[in-house]
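Help: why these numbers?

___
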Amino acid sequence: MSSFVTSNEVLALDLSKYRWKNRVIISFISESGYSEAHQLSKNRDLALNGWNDRDLVLIELGPNNIVMINGLSHNNMNTENLKNYFSADKYDYLAILVGKDGNEKLRSQKAITNEAIFKLIDTMPMRKQEMKNK
């Protein structure tokens, strides 16, 4: 598992604004990985309340530096840094869950189901505290 080592590294990865606020799923998409990416996006749409309740953000990085954040086009992200850091070029498709602490929590070459995402997040100490405080 990878983790963010320094605050400078986090800034370089364009994820610093999410740290301590959001959990992030990064979906790395190659030309042949669109079906998995579509499934993950569809999963998010089907359980949007659950994603929002868990402070989840979906960042989709497609070919030619196409970036979507929660379904909206975004053009101010250095995709190469993220691809290199997570060694995403080795895969047709790769989804990575990054926790609020900036650490990688899950890596999958398939679209992650909502059940798997929620089950994992709900076992995390920070999430347990969030549920207590609601």
